[in-house]
């Protein structure tokens, strides 16, 4: 166990358990890999109990074609395994196979205050410039389902990218209000774990926008399914400025595109940003981009090759998800049952 995962407070009665989720609402990107998946693997390898969930119920908060959703869920499972998640050590499953998620989310809908929800910036971002009246109630309630995902396992630590910090803070508020209202110490106050050189990977076309699976431009992101040539081409064409790279991190301050590429290099190589700049400071992108492309291909192409191999046997992926769901359910059911008991529901069968 590293510094990242320690019992949350010496007096806490909760055993360390890691939970995180990714939406299968499109193919996974380099942002998902560096902001989430890479950390998921490290936490598994540190020996903590790890529960990882493909949150298909979250994905349908915006329209998903049913066949595509099934395909993307299997592909995300393949990405997890290809990146190093071992389904015999971690629990890997899709959310909708464990119905307790939806049930606990309802209880939390009754705990969560509208005022808290109205402050959620992701909802505001996702509806900005669109007709908010026409977005789903599910999209609005999404953070309450996320709190249910986490607290259903009494998870103490949640590795996520920067964009999910506010949702984990809301999860803490929900746990604290539940404990307070029912005078119990039942749900842990979960810690977000936001670490690494690339907790916010930006678009390759616009250094002020997050790299996202939902960006209309495929050139804006590296998909985990991209082959070596595509990865190299996207990085060569990534938007940059005309200046050479600085020798120190401070010199990247007002250069979002340059900073993004250096952060990606740092995260993929495991070197600090300063070490990367010591090597490349003073050089232009003509030298840096090919080095970055070579590194990215070396790290990512094996993942995409392994994903292709795994996707040839979808029945095996479904079997793994089913087994994961059985194991998840065994943890979730007693916690849901106790929650229903605490809130005053009759349990007579
Ligand atoms: P999502 O794709 O929105 O389900 O995100 C799954 C996980 O990947 C979450 O922990 C996100 O914070 C993380 N993530 C998504 N996009 C990025 C990005 N561009 N940079 C860093 N982390 C990201
Ligand atoms: N909301 C997260 C995202 O979009 C996905 C998610 C759902 C999640 N449930 C979770 C992440 C629980 C961590 C823990 O990235």
Give a written overview of the molecule.
The mean pLDDT is 94. The two termini are 40 Å apart. The protein has 349 residues and is mainly alpha-helical. The chain contains 13 helices and 5 strands. The protein has helices at 30-45, 56-59, 66-83, 100-109, 114-118, 121-127, 137-151, 165-181, 228-236, 256-269, 273-280, 285-311, 314-343, and strands at residues 17-22, 49-54, 91-94, 157-159, 191-193. It has 2 domains: 11-199 and 313-343, 3-Layer(aba) Sandwich (Rossmann fold); 218-309, Orthogonal Bundle (Tyrosyl-Transfer RNA Synthetase), CATH 1.10.240. It binds adenosine monophosphate (AMP) and tryptophan.
CATH homologous superfamily identity of the largest domain: HUPs
Give the biggest beta sheet.
3 strands, parallel
Binned, the helix content reads 40-55%
Distance between the termini: 40 Å
- Structural class, please? mainly alpha
- Given this structure, which CATH class of the largest domain is correct? Alpha Beta
